[in-house]
Each structure stands twice: as C-alpha cells, then as structure tokens.
Amino acid sequence: MALMTVDQVAEFLGVQAIRVERLARENLLVPADKDSNGKPMFDAEDVKRYKTLAERLGGL
C-alpha cells in the first residue's frame, strides 16, 4: 500500500490541499494513516478510485 500526503493528493486531484483536508473531515476520502505531524495520509488506490467516482459524478 503506497501512501500519499495531503499535498500529493491535492496535486493528483488538481485541487487545493485545504479541499483534501475537508474531504477527509467529511469522510469522503478516508485517510489510511497519519504522519508524524498528525496530518492524514491516503492510500494511493483509494485516491484513484475517488477521482474516478468524482469524474463520473460530474467532476471535482
């Protein structure tokens, strides 16, 4: 399982980092772990599935 930081997810999705943090708070994108600073870390496969779903529903 490859983990991605908030900034990496934001870059992959083409959104701002604050939006990724909001998605995590709203449980729309569930963190797999936390880094040493308490920031969420996401499974790369989950992020890819979220992007596919969001595109099907009309975009991010």
UniProtKB/TrEMBL annotation:
SUPFAM superfamilies assigned: Putative DNA-binding domain (SSF46955)
One GO process term, biological-process aspect: regulation of DNA-templated transcription
GO molecular function annotations of the record: DNA binding
InterPro entries: DNA-bd_dom_put_sf
Domain of life: Bacteria
This protein's name: Helix-turn-helix domain-containing protein
Species in which this protein is naturally found: Rheinheimera nanhaiensis E407-8
Organism phylogeny: Bacteria, Pseudomonadati, Pseudomonadota, Gammaproteobacteria, Chromatiales
